[in-house]
Amino acid sequence: MPTFLAVYTMKREDLAQFRNRPKSEQDAVDATGVPQWAEWEKKNAAHLTNLGGMVGKTTRATKEGIVAGVNDFCGYVIVEADTAEDAARLFLDHPHITVFPGDGVDIMPFLTGPDL
User: Fold this and answer.
1) Using CA atoms, how far apart are residues 95 and 36, in angstroms rounded to an integer?
2) Could you give the C-alpha distances from 4 to 43, 55, 64, 98, in angstroms and in order?
3) 10-45 per-position pLDDT tens digit
4) Per-residue pLDDT tens for 89-111?
């Protein structure tokens, strides 16, 4: 079955707005979203080959050296599905976009790798 990288994205301004909310509001979102995330993982376990994780600030290596990078990536998971559209459907009700301030999940097929 094809394997896809699913990258959780979040706009920096949306994260900043969330972090500027009172801690009690942030905690309430977490209290709702974290159990839903765990339930989503359980419901889709047959498709999840690597749960990945959330990621922090980007450091970029370039020809010119090492610099601070900027992107909207905030986490990833690796999934198996028949098509990219099937993989994307797994995320339509994901708490990253229904509870947390995430703006989407980008789905990309792996074209090379040890298991392909």
Assistant:
1) 6
2) 18, 18, 31, 21
3) 999 999 999 999 999 999 999 999 999 999 999 999
4) 999 999 999 999 999 999 999 99
Calpha distance 48→6 (Å, rounded): 10
The number of residues in the chain equals 116
Tell me if 29 sits within 8 A of 102, measured CB to CB: no
Between CA 67 and CA 10 the distance in angstroms is: 21
DSSP state of 5: E
Q: Which sequence spans correspond to the domains of the chain?
A: 3-109
Burial of 77 (0-12, 13-18, 19+ CB in 10 A): buried
pTM of structure: 0.91
| CATH number given to 3-109 | 3.30.70.1060
